[in-house]
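Records of this kind hold a single protein each, on a pair of labelled lines. With that in mind, the following record should read easily:
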Amino acid sequence: MLRENINDLIALAAVAEERSFTRAAARLNVSQSALSHTIKGLEQRLGLRLLTRTTRSVAPTLEGEDLLATLNPCFEMIEARLKALNDARDQPTGTVRIVAVEYAIDSILWPKLSPVLKQYPAVNVEFVMDYGYTDLASSQCDAGVRYGEQVSEGMISMRIGPEERMICVGAPEYFEAAGTPQVPHDLAEHRCINLRLSTHGALYAWEFEDKDGNEIRVKVSGQTCFNTINPVMRAAVDGHGLALIPERLAAEHLASGALQTCLDDYCPYFPGFHLYYPSRQRPSSAFEVVLEALRERG
C-alpha cells in the first residue's frame, strides 16, 4: 500500500505546508487540477478527509494532522540521508588497512596521515603492526610497508620515506665498562640487544657493509630480546648492551648524549620505506587519498 500512496503522501505534505493548492502545484511542477485529483484519490482510498478546503485557504483536518505528524519526520530523515549520499559522492570514503612495523607507523604513516584524516572524516585507516613479511591477502590488508629492497615481485611499490641507515648504538656507561667494537665481528664479545622476527621466530642477524660494498652479517647475543624496535632502544639507553636501530629513531637520544654510536663506517644507507600493494587492486577513493598523502616528494 505504501508504494501506491508514496507520491500522494508527498503531495499531501506539500499542500499542507504551503496551505495552498496553487503554490503546492507549482512546487511539485504539476497542474492544480491534477494535484486536487491526487488528494481526492488519496482520501477516497483511506476513507478519511485529510484537508479542509475553503475559498481562502487549505488546512489539514485532525486526521490529516495526525498523519502528517508521522510523515514529516520520515520525509525529513529521507531528505537528509539523500543529501548526505549526494555530498559523499564527491568526498573520499572507505577504510584502508595498512600493515607495517611500529617504527614505520610512528615515523612515516601517522605524521603523514594524521592531517589527512582530519580533512577527510569519511576516510578510515586501520594500522596493523607486524614485524613479519605479512601476506596482504591472508591478513585482509590493502597495503603494507617495507624497506625498498624487501618488496615482493608482482606488487606496485611506492617510496614513502627517505633513505634509512641502521646504526649501532650504546649508552656511554656501557662503552666505559665494555669498550668499543672496532669491526662488526667484535660484537661477538659484547652484550647485544636482540630483535626477534615474527615471520619465522628467528633472531634478526645484524647487517653491515665494508668499504668495498661487501655484506657482513653478524649474529649477536645478550641478556635481552624484544619483538619490536622501541623497547630495543630503551634497553640500550638503560645500558643493557648495544643495539642496531634506525638512525632517525635514535636521533633524540644521540643529540642528548644518552646514546653513542660505533661501527659508523660499516653502517651504509639503503632504500627507505616503500608502500606496496597488489597491481590488480582497484584503488578506492579512500585508498587514493592515502596514496597521495604518503607519496614521498623529491
